[in-house]
Amino acid sequence: MAKQYDVLFRLLLLGDSGVGKTCLLCRLTDNEFLSPHISTIGVDFKMKTLEVNGFKVRIQIWDTAGQERYQTITKQYYRRAQGIFIVYDITSSVSFQHIMKWISDVDEYAPHLVQKILIGNKNDEEHQRQVTTEQGNKLAKSYGMDFFETSAFTNYNITEAFTRMTELVLKANRKELDSTLPSDNDDLNTTETEQEPEYNTCSCTTTRDYSQLNQLQSRYPHRLVVLAFPCNQFGYQENCRNGEILNSLKHVRPGGGYEPSFTVFEKCDVNGANTHPVFAYLKDKLPYPDDDPVSLMQDPKFLVWSPISRTDISWNFEKFLIGPEGEPFKRYSKNFETINIEPDIQRLLRLTKN
Ligand SMILES: Nc1nc2c(ncn2[C@@H]2O[C@H](COP(=O)(O)OP(=O)(O)OP(=O)(O)O)[C@@H](O)[C@H]2O)c(=O)[nH]1
């Protein structure tokens, strides 16, 4: 399978509500401008691939809600960001004054290597300007940041700002990348080594995942809800009738008297024309597993649904973790051991009160 990109980075947009973070993102990824202000709830993200310094860089850009009440949620995203845009609105001196507070939050919660760029958005609104370009430049310089004035309305300087950020993140992570990427002399677009497909979910994997789901549920009985959706679209492995599923778990696989300590729903489709709305929503929000964004099913005989989409679930035991406010947080491939989700669960739980 041809490589889609060489490296994936996570970027974050921060700033007061209404400065234009969502519009900047929509302009970059969809070349659209949204006129009415619909406040972001929690976080959302979009993806874009940029070619920078010969690297194909896939950027996952997280758009955070500027409103105060979401800040406990949005702060959890700082930690995983490699680059952060701090945005103000040139027609709002208040949003400019708040930049210092955003920067101090970044210094507190983001990783040490994080790259920062200051953005003064809405520069098409010259007649309403309250913050001069000079003031923006000066503030950015005092924090050692690059500075761009942009307009999501006229599409001014947006690709430039994101490209610059990608360059900075590449540079900051160069050492790490050099050890994982081919050398400059290698062709970065070479084909990946085909891996042997592992289509038979062997009984030991099934046993492992089921027992780890029980472990997780029992460790957090009041604060975690595990929901399982049986599906017969993967090698027709779930071919029991709904009424037989619990008995099959108990006596066949995993067997040995196994009883799930979590809710098991009726069977549903997770891919194709009859995709259950829960999975349509989750796949829209999290199009690829975080630990394996490129692998798709390699043997076409297992593609038994239609239409086929790049975001489809590829096999049993893909997992989705949903945050305390109902926001899809992370998607894990079938190869990601269920128990290893625990650190992410703990991270989310730390952010909420009982
Ligand atoms: N003139 C002009 N208006 C813009 C620009 N960018 C955004 N806007 C407008 O500003 C308003 C707020 O934009 P959003 O992108 O929703 O703001 P946000 O920062 O994401 O807001 P929250 O989600 O509440 O944090 C909308 O009415 C946009 O149309 C711009 O570059 N120029």
From TrEMBL:
The entry's keywords: Cell membrane, GTP-binding, Hydrolase, Lipoprotein, Magnesium, Membrane, Metal-binding, Methylation, Nucleotide-binding, Oxidoreductase, Peroxidase, Prenylation, Protein transport, Transport
InterPro entries associated with the record: Glutathione_peroxidase, GPX_CS, P-loop_NTPase, Rab15, Small_GTP-bd, Small_GTPase, Small_GTPase_Rab, Thioredoxin-like_sf
Membrane-topology annotation of the record: Lipid-anchor
Reactions mediated catalytically: GTP + H2O = GDP + phosphate + H(+)
SMART domains, A to Z: RAB, RAN, RAS, RHO
Acidic residues: bias regions: 184-197
Entry EC number(s): 3.6.5.2
GO molecular function: G protein activity; GTP binding; metal ion binding; peroxidase activity
Listed GO biological process terms: protein transport; Rab protein signal transduction; response to oxidative stress
Gene Ontology CC: plasma membrane
Listed cofactors: Mg(2+)
Main location (coarse class): membrane
Subcellular location: Cell membrane
Region (Disordered): 179-200
Family: Belongs to the small GTPase superfamily. Rab family.
Protein's name in the database: Ras-related protein Rab-15
UniProt organism field: Hemibagrus wyckioides
Phylogenetic classification of the source organism: Eukaryota, Metazoa, Chordata, Craniata, Vertebrata
